[in-house]
Amino acid sequence: NVFGTTAAEEVHIGSGDVRMDQSFELGGDLLVLDQAANQFTAVRTGLSLQLASETTDILIPLGMSSMTVSFFEGDDRTLVFDPVANTALLGDQSINFAVVPVSEFA
After folding, report:
1. Pairing outcome for strands 41-45 and 48-52
2. How is the chain split among helix, strand and coil, in percent rounded to 5?
3. What are the DSSP calls for 56-74, one per residue?
4. What Cα–Cα distance (Å) separates residue 65 from each residue in 11, 52, 61, 73, 93?
5. Distance CA 5, CA 87 (A)
6. 1-18 pLDDT per residue, tens
7. What are the residues whose beta carbons fall under 8 Å from the beta carbon of 10, sequence distance 6 or more?
8. Torsion-angle region of residue 95: left (phi > 0), alpha (psi -120 to 50) or beta?
9. What pTM value is reported for the model?
10. Alpha-carbon distance 84 to 34, whole Å?
């Protein structure tokens, strides 16, 4: 488990099974991943987003304040919960309760 604070934080994840605590829903954080976006699938589970690849499984709490997910080679995307659409947005990709591949360009 990864425990955060109310301050903006930078978290680097290479691989493994990672659960980020609820403090990350406050936004302003940076999540840096060592894999390309198209290596991941994504699904919304309640008020969290699960990103999974062959070597990594990350559960990220969703908030109405954005955080940045930085995939390999600087492919940065904003992650936020849109309460009006009732969806998670990763860049411009809408993610709900069905597993979908993370788009190569968002």
Report:
1. antiparallel
2. 10, 50, 40
3. EEEEEE--SS-EEEEEGGG
4. 17, 23, 11, 24, 17
5. 25
6. 766 667 678 899 999 999
7. 29, 30, 32
8. beta
9. 0.90
10. 32
Strands in 41-45's sheet, in edge-to-edge order, are 16-19, 56-61, 48-52, 41-45, 100-101
Please give the structure tokens belonging to residue 16. 């493994």
Best CA proximity match to 37, nearest among 91, 97, 98, 96: 91
Q: Find out whether 40 and 77 touch, Cβ atoms under 8 Å.
A: no
In 3D space, the residue among 29, 37, 49 whose CA is nearest the CA of residue 73 turns out to be 37
Q: How far apart are CA 49 and CA 17, in angstroms?
A: 14
Rounded to an integer, what distance in angstroms lies between the CA atom of residue 53 and that of residue 40? 5
pLDDT tens-place string over residues 44-88: 999 999 999 999 999 999 999 999 999 998 899 999 999 999 999
- Whether 93 contacts 106, CB under 8 Å: yes
